[in-house]
Specification:
With 129 residues, this protein is α+β, with helices and mostly antiparallel strands. It contains four helices and eight strands; from the N terminus they run H-E-H-E-E-E-E-H-E-E-H-E. The strands form two sheets. Strands 4, 5, 6, 7 and 8 form a five-stranded antiparallel beta sheet that branches. A three-stranded antiparallel beta sheet has the order 1-3-2, with helices on one face. The radius of gyration is 14 Å and the shape is globular.
């Protein structure tokens, strides 16, 4: 049994990128994992992904592009306000305006730059660069 399926999925992505694989299978598939993958897809860190039902849940087949240097979850899931994003950027991202942090807000999951534009805070979920 997995304690943190999102952390396992992002670790699988990083490990597969390092050895040069072009696609991976992620199990189990949850809505949070799908949303994080779709945000990474929107920012061209990974390619497309598809959900494949296998009778006991589902599996996500992810196409990799080779654009991920590092990604992972942020634990504990820190709550942040609009004026605190810069502090977390310095901690989790290597440079200013380089990479993304995924934030869960009352308006749904989005990147930290989108949350800044909308002037809303939330909980930090993951980072990728």
């Amino acid at each position: 049994m997995l304690n943190d399926p999102l952390a396992a999925a992002l670790t699988k992505v990083v490990n597969a990128e390092r050895v040069g694989k072009r696609e991976i299978l992620i199990r189990p598939a949850s809505s949070m994992i799908k949303k994080v993958l779709s945000i990474m897809n929107d920012h061209n860190y990974i390619g497309t992904y598809e959900e494949i039902p296998d009778g006991r849940g589902s599996v996500l087949k992810v196409n990799l592009l080779g654009n991920v240097n590092r990604c992972g979850v942020i634990k504990p899931r820190f709550s942040t306000k609009i004026n605190q994003f810069e502090k977390w950027e310095k901690r989790y991202l290597p440079a200013h305006e380089f990479g993304i942090m995924v934030v869960s807000t009352p308006q749904g999951m989005m990147t930290h730059t989108q949350a800044k534009e909308k002037s809303i805070g939330g909980k930090l979920i993951a980072y990728c660069y």
